[in-house]
Amino acid sequence: MAEPAYTVASDSENTGEEKSSSSPSLPEIAVGIDIGTSQCSIAVWNGSQVHILRNTRNQKLIKSFVTFKDEVPAGGVSNQLAHEQEMLTGAAVFNMKRLIGRVDTDPVVHASKNLPFLVQTLDIGVRPFIAALVNNAWRSTTPEEVLAIFLVELRLMAETQLKRAVRNVVLTVPVSFSRFQLTRIERACAMAGLHVLRLMPEPTAVALLYAQQQQMTSHDSMGSGSERLAVIFNMGAGYCDVAVTATAGGVSQIKALAGSAVGGEDILQNTMKHIAPPSKEASGLLRVATQDAIHRLSKQESVQIEVDLGDGDVVSKVLDRLEFEEVNKKVFEECERLVVQCLRDAKVDVGDIDDVIMVGGKEEIYKEVNPLEAAVRGAALEGAVTSGIHDPFGSLDLLTIQATALAVGVRANGNKFIPVIPRNTMVPARRDLFFTTVHDDQKEALIVNHLLGYFKIVGIPPSPKGVPEINVCMDIDASNALRVFAAVLMPGSKSPVVPVIEVRMPTVDDGHGWCAQALNAKFGSALDLVTLQRKV
Amino acid sequence: MSGILVNCAGNSLRFSPGTSLPQPKSTRSHNGTARFPTGANSFRASAQTLNAEPAVTESVRRRVSSLYELLKVNETASLPEIKTAYRSLAKVYHPDASESDGRDFMEIHKAYATLADPTTRAIYDSTLGARQRRVHAGAMGRAGRVYATTRRWETDQCW
Question: What PANTHER family does the database record attribute to this sequence (chain B) (predicted)?
């Protein structure tokens, strides 16, 4: 664990006893948090409805950033920027959701090198080095630390307003987050004294809200009414997510998920590259001017961009919609691809879709619900449901049946990925597969859970190749924790011949990028597995 | 009564069900190793079933004789009836809605997945008679899970 010493000023004073003093008779209602790439929100079930908390500036959407300009880092919850541009001086670290859990070979990390704070990459598959400018010196930090500082502020704000300790949270996460990224999020939460009850893919939180609204309007608590199929499309600054859900009677069953790390940030960067010389891409002024231009473009056919970058560099450009769409063609194509893939995975025809729900954009989806608030509202509902809260009016008679966003599997058949639990499998899930040895008298086998961890199963009795049966079982529980089990069976034996191994994944820490390569180089096929072909 | 559709509203379904599905927290202990009570052959058999999914585990089979009984629907139930039954049971057995660890819900989901697809339902129906005889003959024995469930410590969450 190569974690740096951790210093959040307010962390230590909130880890101990006071939490257990909360009333034992009432279950603690978990709060819902939507951590966005650019802004966050926090909401809680207040006994009759979802209540979105506001910060001291009366904002429901709180800018996600942490500034390091003083001794004590301050996040966007309590800290007020004197000016928008203060965010761009290098003292503020933001976009942590784009950086967390990614290695320095990741294109998303590379795209972040244009940001005003320092993002350094060595391209070897380790965590990128990030630092904030403090008194003209770069102070190193990590995405987890930045997120933790922000979450501490969010928690303190909630505790003040709710007048109780806040420990349990339901967080929304992008569909495309790997298990490794999810553990980084959990870790940041733990650093902030928060316990993650559920990590919900963002569109599934929206799906739960949709289920509630549907139930409220149809008064159908039995689910006997007709099932409605909806596509949920969620695009934020950092990620684009799609879900197909079948809903009836307050139960939202996720049929398929698709997601990718494309978002408004890509659109912003593409546009910046388009209008300014490459040397000026890191300019904060340019960033602000471009952002403003994109916003104006949603109302106008074309916009004039004028920005003085200093040193005699002046950008003066007219940008029209056609040009803007051309510059961002790849982003829009990727969004389209995700929708098509999601519909195909859900085995649903476009004609069968009853509703299309757009979130993260500017259009309103429901009469009273701001699309930017849909995810956090859904998370708060999930928080109440999983905390075992009942509502006499049936408003919490809800459920989301989740599906796995990504396949999990093992390396076998000569460095191939063999899925054990495929994508879009209902969660909780438990599946197993049988493998066998590739060499005669092979005593050990390496179980590599693709990019997440590895362990050896040893003590396989001497036997010709193909005889031992190695059962690999994967289990994802309701809170999305993954466990891998492995057992060796011999023909005729009544029980596993060696103790079963159970491993909670992921086991790898930072640097998992080169771990797979190293394993392959060291062991090659010596400890390999092949899928067992069974006689039918 | 296997032939009657579940017929109560979500809220009243919330209390601990009087059926035989166990509440896991009281019944499970963790001792680090797993049991293989049925031996390799039946272990393999249980994993090698309809649509390549692990079969309904014996712990449920022990008590219900068919997937229809598990979903509490009639063998002639229509697809909407099956879906409705599935959703009603989900509100009781899904881990978000109960203390359960999800094992029971996984069984319910498997039953639903089999019966909601006309092809797998037809295959299942054709084997139904044989399955019931086998269960009644006690061939499966008291076969629990292959792998014990680990107790979740809070430190598990992160590092």
Answer: CHAPERONE PROTEIN DNAJ 11, CHLOROPLASTIC (PTHR45432:SF2), CHAPERONE PROTEIN DNAJ 11, CHLOROPLASTIC-LIKE (PTHR45432)
